[in-house]
Amino acid sequence: MTKEHLLKVLEKGIRYDGRKLTEYRPIKIETNISKSAEGSAKITIGETELIAGVKLGIETPYPDTPNQGNLMVNVELLPMSNSEFEVGPPGDNAVELARVVDRGIRESKAINTKKLCVKEKEKVWSVMIDICTINAAGGLFDAATLGAIAALQSTTMPKLEETTVNYDEKTKEKLPITRDPITVTVYKIGPYLIVDPLPEEEKEADARLTIALTRENTICALQKGGTEPLTTEIIEQMITIAQEKAPQLRKHLK
Amino acid sequence: MTYTKRFDGRGQEDLRPIEAKAGIIPNADGSAMFKIGNTVALAAVYGPRDLRPKFMQNPSTGILRCNYNMMPFSGHGERVRPGGGRRAKEISMIMQKALAPVLNLKEYPNTVVDVFVELPQTDAGTRCAGITAAAIALADAGLEMKDLVSALAVGKVGGTIISDLTYNEEAYEEEGGSTDIPVAIIPSTGEITLLQLDGELTKDELTQALELAKKSAAKIYKVQQEALKARFK
After folding, report:
1. What is the CATH number of the domain that holds B41?
2. N or C: which terminus of chain B carries fewer CB neighbours within 10 A?
């Protein structure tokens, strides 16, 4: 499929799969799908499927945040999920994806990290989010953030005995999640703006902008990608689309 | 015998509840999920496809390559660091040996069939669940196969020979502790393609355990076949 053909189709205001330009594929979220994790969620957007899992552990806090818990986000673009992905340490795409999800959560202060302090300067809870792709078929940015938030919201604290974690005993206490940022990534293909791309649309996109939004529709992280530059007018249009879409996506969260 | 009543109330020869589904990953050429108790294995098959680097290619046959990986949050207790270690490397290798005998890749020289096994949730028996899922996925990919491969762990816990050990049973410490024997079987011939053992037992006990493994593998085989039938209905 050539770009020319794709642009002709988009000109009619429809996509290869019949969607409108700013319409997502069907979204489904299922939580607590891994009993080994403290929290987990499986999210599907169309044929894209990924699992987000949360593990909690006790670590030393960072020197600049001695009374706050640690956060780590990691993305595994598993070779199982796409023929183009390879075995090995995370590549550029996986690292960018992880960092964008991380910033949305961190900058909106979605986790009340002060409540995760066990002993100042010495012991804090560490929240480790791993996102694993099961079937990568476009639109991973938005799926990853949505999955991460759903997993965080389902997370319960394991029992802390002195300074070691007893993973066999789960408490009823939930991880303190105070906000629910989500991302909407808007892609520009020629003059057209679309969301939730199919893999063939993603490949032909000139630029993309990932916009992390809080429930109040404020912007808490941005990431521009792709090879082409964007004008401020286009950026504003992209944000308007994102602000329209965000509440719809958030409906899938609890 | 000190271990007469199992932690989860199962009989000595009983398996945990099992479930299988073929065709779970649209991007893959073949795929499957296999669940036994709280252990869940996902398997995806890609290929036969071009093998890189080229010097690894075999002009007389295609080759099978397996990759076993626990998702970082799937372990018992702390997070498992991604990237695999010596354990994952060894398991990937023995999975390959367990599955290769049922495949005929002569028709596909210079190619590779990649099998990726991922575990989102574990409670012992992961390599066996992985092999079982991978066998379904290979069949789902439409590859020529002599038979499926069915795998499970049998063992001896507190003097009792049992089927399908859980994490708690593997960790049993009283009376001789626990012996864990992962076995993979070609059901139609009864041949064994994977055999490992950690623990200690007599030759007679091993014979008894392997007999139990064959009986148990037959139950798994049935579920594998049903999953494939459901897929191609």
Report:
1. 3.30.230.70
2. C
With 0-12 CB in 10 A as exposed, 13-18 as middle and 19+ as buried, what is B12?
A: middle
- Number of domains composing chain B: 1
Residue B131 lies in a domain: yes
Q: Which domain holds residue B64?
A: 18-231
User: Based on the number of CB atoms within 10 Å of its own CB, is A34 exposed (0-12), middle (13-18) or buried (19 or more)?
Assistant: buried
Residue among A114, A121, A154, A125 at smallest CA distance from A33: A154
Q: Does the predicted interface ipTM exceed a cut of 0.95?
A: no
Which chain B residues have a beta carbon less than 8 Å from that of A137?
26-27
Rounded CA separation B204/A192 (Å): 73
Q: With left for phi above 0 and alpha for psi between -120 and 50, is residue B199 left, alpha or beta?
A: left
Are A53 and B72 an interchain contact pair (Cβ–Cβ within 8 Å)? Answer: yes
Please name the residues in contact with B214: beta carbons below 8 A apart, sequence gap of 6 or more.
Answer: B185, B190
Rg, Å, chain B Cα set = 18
| Alpha-carbon gap, residue A235 to A116, rounded angstroms | 37
pLDDT in tens, B38-82: 999 999 999 999 998 889 999 999 999 999 999 999 998 999 999
CA distance A180 to chain B (A): 22
Look at B76 and A83 and tell me if their CB atoms are within 8 Å: no
Q: Is the pTM of this model over 0.90?
A: yes
CB–CB contact A74 B82 (8 Å): yes
Kindly state whether residue B80 falls inside one of the protein's structural domains.
yes
